[in-house]
Amino acid sequence: MRRKPGQLLPLEVEILEVGLALQRQGLTHFHGYSLAKLLRERGGRRSLTAHGTLYRALHRLVSAGLMEASWEDHGIAERENRPRRRLYRLLGAAEPAVARARAAERARPKLGSLQPDLESP
Amino acid sequence: MRRKPGQLLPLEVEILEVGLALQRQGLTHFHGYSLAKLLRERGGRRSLTAHGTLYRALHRLVSAGLMEASWEDHGIAERENRPRRRLYRLLGAAEPAVARARAAERARPKLGSLQPDLESP
DNA sequence: CGACAATAGGCAGATATCTGCCTATTGTCA
DNA sequence: TGACAATAGGCAGATATCTGCCTATTGTCG
Q1: The pTM is what?
Q2: How far is A83 from chain B (nearest CA, A)?
């Protein structure tokens, strides 16, 4: 769907949130497949069976300048005997972007994120 | 199943036959996935949905000294934007081994490869 | 010959990433 | 506000290779 520049979609926010959480644990780099597993554990809600959607969202975040992508070293994949990973790293712009997205969501809540309205009894 | 040394199993013979056919076309190297497609076209009979059986057979043929395996150059896979292939090449011992297997099969035909018995009317 | 050991074959799925196609959602403009 | 354009999400499947588990088949030995 069309969207105004700078705005983040739910999946993108989720990716960045997981990324920030990993960063807090000292893990600066992650890859798509691991992210898929984390997201599955996290919410359970998102199927992501065929991870096409996720990889496209990752590419978008790179294009948006919020993440940086690089290919894993050949040798590592080789030693561990598995396909090569594409490693993603959050850029500085990511954290404020998430904060803005969260603020925007609080201001304009979508159906599904309805919270008990304590202000208007 | 157990087998006496030097004997080839049907799948192994098929692999080597396809390999020899490719060789005659000037294609000395092939990889597992392409082989799976060729075998599927060829007989149709073998499912090979999850190619585990095929890859194991390839490893056996390498251990048996009938084929040689090598990893494709990183750069090629990278340029073509796909996983790296393991390339197989028939060794000199392959052709006589197939010939022997075929001769053995003619001598001791299994159920399923029954040919019209023209010798004993 | 019949029981046993060993291994082959098949099924399922892990590991990674990516594309095509169709539908759903959203912003914009008339 | 309602129609349209654009793009996001989901499903399916391609590209490659490999492991685990269970069953089927085979050679050997008592």
Answers
A1: 0.83
A2: 6
Nucleotide D24 C1' to residue A51 CA (A) = 36
* A60 neighbors A15 (Cβ within 8 angstroms): no
Residue B21 to residues A16, B53, B79: CA-CA distances in angstroms? 52, 21, 28
Amino acid identity, position A51: H
- For strand C, the positions having any atom within 7 A of a protein Cβ are 5-21, 24-28
Which nucleotide across the nucleic acid strands is nearest to B53, CA versus C1'? C9
CA distance A7 to chain B (A): 31
Q: Which residue of A has its CA nearest to B85?
A: A83
Q: Quick one: chain B helix, strand, coil %, rounded to 5?
A: 50, 10, 40
User: pLDDT per residue over B43-92, tens digit each?
Assistant: 765 667 789 999 999 999 999 999 999 999 999 999 999 999 999 999 99
Max Cα separation, chain A? 62
SS3 call for A121:
coil
Q: Which two tokens stand for residue A103?
A: 């603020």
Minimum mean pLDDT among A91-100, B34-43, B100-109: which range? B100-109
B69 lies in a domain?
yes
Instruction: State the CATH number of the domain containing residue A57.
Output: 1.10.10.10
Domain limits for position A48 = 10-107
